[in-house]
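Chapter review: from sequence to fold.
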Amino acid sequence: MAARALITAFKANKPAFGVWLTTPSIFHARTLAQSSPHLSWVVIDCEHGLIPLVPGASETVAAIHGAVPNGNGPSAVVRIPATGASGSGNTNWQIKYALDAGARGVLVPMVST
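The token string follows.
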């Protein structure tokens, strides 16, 4: 199994550099993933970006993970849309969808405890 740049940086207590993707294009996703060997992550913004969670996230995750041979590229992290305090608050299906799509992490906005 290939070493993942993000988890390797976390374990070594080193900075993890990445980029934020807001445009719905697998070509942009692949270009970003291939842009630097120093990238550890790419966040797919499904909250404020133009990328829809369904089906855009799964296509974008696949493009990022398939962009670099041997799986040595950046990890795809999906920022799910916030449902807000007045909404149902049930984001379980969104988290499940992002993980089922192959995301190596999920960023959940609007969390307060």
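Two observations follow directly from the output. The two ends are 37 Å apart (CA to CA). The mean pLDDT is 88.
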